[in-house]
């Protein structure tokens, strides 16, 4: 069964009727419903296109958090071959919110870092809903340094509401770990391409997204804090999260205009979860192009370009 968001109710009603008619035909009711199904499919398609033609920031946030949206593990499976995961930060433990390793992209050796939220209750708990602890970022740094040592490009996939704010994480140096991860990104002489596939939350996201090229999926969001968190701080009222989302400039279009990201990867009408294969194909094209372009630059040029890119953010507004 497909999951529907609150604003998708008109589409849910139409597709529910289509399912009922198909069930009726399958059960042998003796009624030809093909014409009615075709008519309803057209209405559902038009309704979906209308809804997604002008989504509000709050609605885009809901799409970015959709339970059926492809996660890091899906991109890994469809874009990377011969993946060998690496575990542990060699200091404390292994953090499953961040997955790291080496594999091949179109036959080329690459390093991969991604934040995994999990797809059901069991995996969400195992991956801590994609909220990494310090050991997750220290593991990421370990892989970054290996990528730099062996001159292997790095691809990162961002999908987190933010770094884990628990007491244990703070005791083990959460802020320092995020800062060190960001610093490691800035110091690499190997290309970094980062894709924000769902949520890009605060330092938890930028710790692995300080890249030469930063992209967002069309319905992804990227912000210094979640709308709920911002509403709680600004108005002491988390129920005003919709107001916060509207004012925070969290959408891909806003962030491209502000120069925070380089470009937007389009999604099918209805979101990435309705046609994941199309999103994987578009993401592959983007990574291919950038690895080819960045591969022509020297290590020093790659590092300088990355640093200049982030130092320039906000200067021309």
Question: Care to describe what's here?
Answer:
This protein has 317 residues and is an alpha/beta fold. It has 2 domains: 49 residues; 251 residues, 2-enoyl-CoA Hydratase, Chain A, domain 1 (Alpha-Beta Complex), CATH 3.90.226. Helix content is 48%, strand content 16%. The chain contains 14 helices and 8 strands. Strands 1, 2, 3, 4, 5, 6, 7 and 8 form an 8-stranded mixed beta sheet that branches. Strand 2 and strand 3 form a beta hairpin. The longest helix is centred in the first third of the chain and has 19 residues. The termini are far apart. The mean pLDDT is 93.
Beta fraction:
15-25%
CATH class of the largest domain: Alpha Beta
CATH fold description of the largest domain: 2-enoyl-CoA Hydratase, Chain A, domain 1
**CATH homologous superfamily heading of the largest domain:** 2-enoyl-CoA Hydratase, Chain A, domain 1
- Give the tally of β-strands: 8
What is the structure about, briefly put?
This protein is of the alpha/beta class and 317 residues long.
Structure characteristics:
14 helices; about 325 residues; alpha/beta; eight-stranded mixed β-sheet; 2-enoyl-CoA Hydratase, Chain A, domain 1; 8 strands
